[in-house]
Structures are given as structure tokens and as C-alpha cells.
Specification:
heterodimer, A: about 270 residues, mainly alpha, MetI-like fold, B: mainly alpha, 2 domains, two-stranded antiparallel ribbon, transmembrane helix (chain A), MetI-like_sf (chain A), membrane (chain A), Bact_Polyamine_Transport (chain A), transport (chain A)
Chain lengths: ~270, ~300
């Protein structure tokens, strides 16, 4: 109700906000709509409801392979980038040393580089070294672009908390590792899980790097890219896209809930309410 | 750059101890970040250096001739096809960053000034579509703008047009629309952050001193949020110049961008040095354009005050 009154109070600005949200969501909403439509081409009026495009999905071996590959790449990339992210985020939030900003800037650089540059430069080096392209080379590239996101999520989690808790633990005789395991880790666990989920989602959806660095194995986006050439395959792609959409949405909602819980926890325990 | 290098020889006990302490803090911090740093060094800096080196070499069928030459840069900068592609990529990325920033600003303002308790919920709502697969979002625009697409069939159903329009898809406007949609959420966050930092008492002071809402916005809020506008523009501009998927899917012949040419050099055309030179040229021009944007927005900010 309060939201409703505020909605009316701020007049044209909220009307604009509403239109903007429509603009953001509308294109995405067409995917599920046409994925349950009987017609093979996506156009209005809708011709009838069907789930046959979904039923065909598990019967496509190439798709199952691509799904498995995406899972392998996503899990490896998210674990590796979160481990590297933890080290960096911890170092940045806990220690002062010369060159800290420069190093941080370099690690965050993939955020502001065109992805194709990252992809072709890695490709050149891998081919020069005579390594063969495989799922592993995709993981190498994905870790590079995931680390900045991981660090962003983790620094937010690390910064909130009270350093005196760690000092207290050290004063009471815990070793550095013991302090990390028994004090730091439980506090930052939600941020770590959130980082894992965000990195997995990025890897699951990433196309350009995978496209350049793959050998013969396809990940899901590469499979979809291949299918897009055939107009008749579109409904199947729409169905698959809808499932991916739901998966991304669920993963990110969980990540967001965990992130908020982490923020609340560090604030509470570091503050007066402890 | 290295932390260990700063440990100067110390004279006297206390200074030595203080240095040792300082050094241990530096060394610990540096040691902790070094795996990530090395990863970025080996998989980002080294590869880019390799690309730069290649851009001065020549492809000789299957081998690469490593004598220094500027021929690739001559081709990248003077051959009409590459020059046109570069110009178009820059034009498209400028338009996209302009539209995303202009469209995003009121939303960021709305959330920051009228979001109330629901600020983080709003931000979450807005970022969700951004996290869905980029490929799928581009594809959904193809579905919308296509000859038999949603927009055409919808307009025909309403009786507004008699036959499907071909003007919607496969041109640079389609690329601009799709990219503006794709990057929308990315522009909101930095603007929102800088609006949150605007001291509300300054806005009140301007109002108390007789500025109307529009004047106080133009003279206080807008200039103070310039850093957010700058980072929003850059965060959209830089990646869009090198976009490959959107021009390939919705750009058609008239919407091809530089990334498509770069990909061709590493694929079918198999001329790595030329592809490398195109990449380096793109990076340099993007950097120049980003610098120019910063200068222009800063100048506008100073004028507004």
C-alpha cells in the first residue's frame, strides 16, 4: 500500500520506470510464450498450446552432450575463479601495500575489454604454444572474465565485517589459519556461495570466448548458435532458452538472497545488535 | 610494482623493526594476491603482448614471417572495408552508450530519490534480464523485428500495415536497438551509485535559495552525478565496439562491425597478423574515444555549475 502511494506520488517518473521495466522484460518474455506455441515460426496470433518442443529436447544427444559440457565448464570455472577471487578480495580488503591499486586494476581489466579481444589473444597464445583447444581452454578463458565479478561480490562480503573479531581470535591464541577457518570463513560463507553461483551463471551463458576457444566440444550457447542457422529448429531453441532463463533466474535469486543475508549478518554481528 | 622492492636498508633497531613489520604486511598482502595477479598476467597481459607482436608480422601461407612491418596497420587504417567497419563500430557504440545513459538516468534517479525501502529490490528487478543469456536476448530481438516477427505480425493484426516491413531487421538501427536493450542495466548501476552519494542537503539548500526543481537538478544533482555518467558511458561503450553476436544475428549486411572482420581473419581468411592489427587498432581507438568522452563530460559538468 505504501509502495502504491509512493508510486502515485512520484508521478511521471514512476510511469517511466514502469515503461522501462516493460522494455527490459518484454523481449525476454517472448521466449517462453513462443516456446509453447504450436507454430514453427514465432508470430501473432498464437496458434495453440503445446509442450512438444520441450519433449523433443531430451531426445537430442548433441544437446545432452552440450549440457554436460556446460556443467563441467561452469563448475570448474566457478570454483577456480572463486578461489582466486577469495585470495584477491582478502588481500585487497585486509592489507595495504604499494601497487595494490595497479594490481587490482589489472585483475579487473577484463570487465572493460571487448570480449573478442580477450578471446582472440588467448586463442593466439594457446595455438602458439601448440596446446589443443578443449573444454579446458574454455575454462581458462571463463575464469579470466569471472574473477572480476567474483572479487566484486566477495569484497562486498569481506568489507562489511569487523576486523576486531579476527584480532580477538588471534589474541586468544588461534593461529592465522585457525582464525580464518573458525571466524572469517563462517562470516563470509554466504558471499562465497554467492560468488560461485554468479560465476557459474556467467560461464553458463558465455558465448564468444567459448566459441573461439572450443575444440570439438560444444557448450550450450555454442549448440544454440549452431541451431540458429536453421529456421525449423527455432521452437526447440526457444524451449531450451526458456529453461536456461529459468535456471539463471533461480541461481541469481539464491545468490542475491545469500548476499543480503551475508550483509545483514556481518552488520549485525559487528554492530550493536551482536 | 613489487612490494618487496620498497624494503630499504634500515639503521637502528626501532626503524629496522618498523620496516620489518611494514614489510611483512606488504609481503603478506602481496603473497595473497599473487596467484590471481599471476593468472591475469599470464592469461591477459601476455596474450595481449603476443597480439601486439603479431600485428607487426606477416602471414606467409601457413607460417608467420617475423620481420617487422607496418603493412597490417596500413591495411587496417586505409583500406575502405576496414575503415568503414571501424567507423560504423564507433558510431554504433557511441549511439548505444548515449541512448543507454539517457534512458537509464531517470530510472537511477527514480530509484535513488523515490525508491524508499525498496531500493535493492528495484535494482535486483532491473539487473535480472541482464543476467539472462546474451545470445538469447539478441535472438529474441530477431524474433521481434523479423519479417515474420512479432512486431510485423502484431502490426498487421492491428491493421496498421498491409504487408510485413523489411526495414526493421538487418541494419544498423536493429543493432543499436538490440545493444541498447542488452546494456541497459549496466548503465543504471554506476549512475545510481553516484546519485546515492549526492548530499541531499545541497539539493535542499538550492531549493531554499530559490532554485526551482529543474534548476536545482541541473545545477546540483546532475553535475554531482557526472562521475556515474562517465563510468556508465564507458562501461557500455568499450565492450559494444567489439560486439560480435549482435551484428551477426540482427545486423545483416549493413550492420557488420569490426569484430566480425577480426573473427574472419582468425577463421576463414586465416590472416592472424591482420586480425591482430585490427584488434590493436580497435583497442587504441576505443581508448581514445573513452578519453574524449571523459573530457567532454567533465567540461560539461564544469559549465553547468
Amino acid at each position: 500500500m505504501i509502495a502504491m502511494r509512493r508510486f502515485l506520488a512520484s508521478g511521471w517518473l514512476s510511469a517511466y520506470a514502469f515503461l522501462y521495466i516493460m522494455f527490459l522484460y518484454l523481449p525476454v518474455v517472448f521466449l517462453p510464450i513462443f516456446s509453447v506455441n504450436t507454430a514453427a515460426t514465432p508470430k501473432f496470433p498464437l496458434s495453440g498450446f503445446t509442450l512438444k518442443w520441450y519433449e523433443d529436447l531430451p531426445r537430442t544427444p548433441a544437446l545432452l552432450d552440450a549440457t554436460w559440457n556446460s556443467l563441467v565448464v561452469g563448475v570448474s570455472a566457478s570454483i577456480l575463479s572463486t578461489v582466486l577471487g577469495i585470495l584477491a578480495a582478502r588481500s585487497i580488503t585486509r592489507y595495504r601495500y604499494p601497487g595494490r591499486r595497479a594490481i587490482n586494476g589489472l585483475i579487473m581489466a577484463p570487465l572493460v575489454l571487448p570480449e573478442i579481444i580477450v578471446a582472440i589473444s588467448l586463442l593466439l597464445v594457446i595455438l602458439q604454444l601448440g596446446l589443443s583447444l578443449s573444454l579446458f581452454t574454455i575454462v581458462l578463458g571463463h575464469v579470466l572474465v569471472c574473477i572480476p565479478y567474483s572479487i566484486t561480490v566477495l569484497t562486498a562480503g569481506f568489507e562489511g565485517f569487523d576486523r576486531s573479531l579476527e584480532e580477538a581470535s588471534a589474541d586468544l591464541g588461534e593461529s592465522a589459519f585457525g582464525t580464518f577457518r573458525r571466524v572469517t570463513l563462517p562470516m563470509v560463507a554466504p558471499a562465497i556461495i554467492s560468488s560461485l553461483l554468479v560465476c557459474f551463471t556467467i560461464s553458463l551463458d558465455e558465448f564468444i570466448i567459448a566459441f573461439f576457444l572450443t575444440g570439438t566440444d560444444a557448450t550450450l550457447p555454442i549448440y544454440i548458435w549452431g541451431q540458429l542457422r536453421f529456421a525449423s529448429k527455432l521452437p526447440g531453441v526457444l524451449a531450451l532458452g526458456t529453461l536456461l532463463l529459468v535456471a539463471s533466474f533461480l541461481l541469481l535469486t539464491i545468490a542475491e538472497i545469500l548476499r543480503r543475508r551475508a550483509a545483514r549478518r556481518t552488520q549485525n554481528e559487528g554492530g550493536l545488535h551482536a | 610494482m613489487t612490494a618487496a622492492a620498497e624494503g630499504a636498508p634500515a639503521f637502528g633497531m626501532t626503524r629496522a623493526r618498523r620496516n620489518a613489520l611494514l614489510q611483512s604486511e606488504s609481503v603478506q598482502g602481496f603473497a595473497l594476491i599473487s596467484p590471481t595477479f599471476l593468472y591475469a598476467l599470464i592469461l591477459l597481459v601476455l596474450p595481449i603482448l603476443v597480439v601486439i607482436a603479431h600485428s607487426f608480422w606477416t602471414q606467409n601461407y601457413l607460417t608467420i614471417d617475423r620481420t617487422f612491418t607496418l603493412e597490417n596497420y596500413r591495411a587496417a587504417l586505409t583500406e575502405p572495408i576496414y575503415r568503414d567497419l571501424l567507423w560504423r563500430s564507433l558510431y554504433i557504440s557511441l549511439m548505444v552508450s548515449f541512448f543507454t545513459v539517457v534512458l537509464a538516468y531517470p530510472i537511477a534517479y527514480f530509484i535513488s530519490f523515490h525508491g524508499g525501502r525498496h531500493k535493492s529490490l528495484w535494482l535486483f528487478l532491473i539487473t535480472i534480464p541482464f543476467w539472462t543469456s546474451y545470445l538469447l536476448r539478441v535472438m529474441s530481438w530477431k524474433v521481434i523485428l523479423g519479417y515474420n516477427g512479432v512486431l510485423n505480425s502484431g502490426l498487421m493484426g492491428l491493421g496498421l500495415i498491409d504487408e510485413p516491413s523489411t526495414a526493421l531487421l538487418y541494419n544498423s538501427s536493429a543493432v543499436i536497438i538490440t545493444l541498447t536493450h542488452a546494456w541497459a542495466a549496466f548503465a543504471i548501476l554506476p549512475i545510481f551509485v553516484s546519485l546515492e552519494k549526492v548530499d541531499r542537503t545541497l539539493v535542499e539548500a538550492a531549493t531554499d535559495l530559490g532554485d526551482g526543481p529543474i534548476r536545482s537538478f541541473l545545477r546540483v544533482t546532475l553535475p554531482l552525478s557526472a562521475p556515474g555518467i562517465i563510468s556508465a558511458a564507458l562501461i557500455v561503450m568499450i565492450p559494444t565496439v567489439g560486439d560480435y553476436v549482435t551484428p551477426k544475428l540482427v545486423g545483416g549486411k549493413d550492420g557488420v562491425m569490426i569484430a566480425n572482420a577480426i573473427q574472419a581473419q582468425f577463421g576463414k581468411a586465416s590472416n592472424w597478423p591482420l586480425g591482430a592489427a585490427l584488434s590493436v587498432t580497435t583497442m587504441l581507438i576505443v581508448t581514445l574515444m573513452a578519453g574524449a568522452t571523459v573530457v567532454i563530460i567533465r567540461a560539461a559538468q564544469r559549465l553547468a555549475r
